[in-house]
Amino acid sequence: MAKNSGISLPVVRRLPRYYSNLEELMREGILRISSGELAKRMKLTASQIRQDLNNFGGFGQQGYGYNVTDLYNEIGHILGVDRKLKVILIGVGNIGKAIATQVNFSKRGCELIGLFDIADELVGQEVAGIKVRKMTELSDFCKTNEPEIAILCIPKSQAYGVAKMLISSGVTSFWNFSHFDLNVYFDDIIVENVHLGDSLMTLKYRTNNKG
Amino acid sequence: MAKNSGISLPVVRRLPRYYSNLEELMREGILRISSGELAKRMKLTASQIRQDLNNFGGFGQQGYGYNVTDLYNEIGHILGVDRKLKVILIGVGNIGKAIATQVNFSKRGCELIGLFDIADELVGQEVAGIKVRKMTELSDFCKTNEPEIAILCIPKSQAYGVAKMLISSGVTSFWNFSHFDLNVYFDDIIVENVHLGDSLMTLKYRTNNKG
DNA sequence: TAGATTGTTAATCGATTAACAATC
DNA sequence: TAGATTGTTAATCGATTAACAATC
User: What is the DSSP letter of B210?
Assistant: First the structure.
């Protein structure tokens, strides 16, 4: 887990929430908001919001609060929605297909440029307007197109080999839907895990043990 | 966010990881493991592992470590894999379909008993061996079958209404794939959020700002 | 000017890590 | 018995919350 520019991970994880709440405020036509009001909407504390934002700069104004549109744009800039990163997706099964078609990549400053699968019956098909390629083309594709982010929607058993290859081709970041702990085996990569099974079990534990 | 039996959320979130790592150790035929060795495999500290486990009881033995199979069974029991909860899924779109077919519910102590969608062309179809029902049947279905957990794979705009209805029908827990903050509007429910867009943006920020 | 609300420093809280006596 | 490793208490670290002077 490489450290990121001194901003703590809990703060970084809240940035997208700020962004989408501000987008909503804009849609509602609200022009200014105080940390207190925003806190109420997001179930945070006013203190926390001011602390979070002041990691990046003083976006507010004493006695007034924050200009909604300005803050939205600032956070968008911090999140880099204006700076496109190239993304590839490996494993076009149920989850892979859903991710490819459902996630709005371009809205989030990403560009999905390639899909890969081992299954012959998938290769050549179009998903989300992109042709599925053979796994054997992956290495060359990376050398030519230099994607920064790879989405892994492959079984645990294949994750190590695929990740190793991608890392040696220059991929630094993984959106990991496989149930394999990349961080344990590779240093200096950035991993965002979406472990659905773990998430469900956590929910189940909390349900069984609710106070 | 209802508090759960005094165990902190970070600990609860690690339980599924312990569980799957122990499963792997069993497959490898390893009979005993020390907190130090397990820490290395999971990129945790030995201290943390011992602290975590001692929230639930003294499962180890001084000078020896932990019996892999026993610990696996203990954690399985803590996670309640032997106690089935009934689950319904609302919204059989790309993500919903992928969840229904891909997630191994029964292995995790869950039973998927109903699928619901508003789209006429989906109603009546079978997904993961379960017939998709009309949304209009949802309320009656809940009263009859009493599901504890609902999976929301619906648009943000519909989440409030659907959740409200489910809560009044006795559902307490939500696996929330919609981009709507249930916790802000409802108290005394348990929510596990999977916000894919936020996860991707977090990854992207960290990639742009890697040190 | 008076009121509101920020930016920022200080206090608190909780989680992780370290240390070590207990004990298998 | 000697060595290893736990269970548990104490120390540290980091994140959240509170307080308040600065200022719009």
Answer: B
* Chain B residues close to A104, C-beta within 8 Å: 197
Nearest chain B Cα distance for residue A108, angstroms: 6
Domain positions in chain B:
9-79, 85-198
A64-87 pLDDT, tens digit each: 999 999 999 999 999 999 999 999
When CB atoms are compared, the residue of B179, B190, B204 closest to A80 is B204
CATH number listed for the domain at residues A9-79: 1.10.10.10
pLDDT at B138 over 50: yes
Nearest CB to A80 within list B15, B17, B208: B208
The C-alpha of A96 sits at a distance from chain B's nearest C-alpha, in angstroms, of 9
Is the CB of B35 within 7 Å of strand D? yes
Q: A85-198 maps to which CATH number? A: 3.40.50.720
pTM over cut 0.90? yes
Return positions of chain D under 7 A from a protein CB: 2-9, 14-19, 22-24
Residue B136: pLDDT above 80? yes
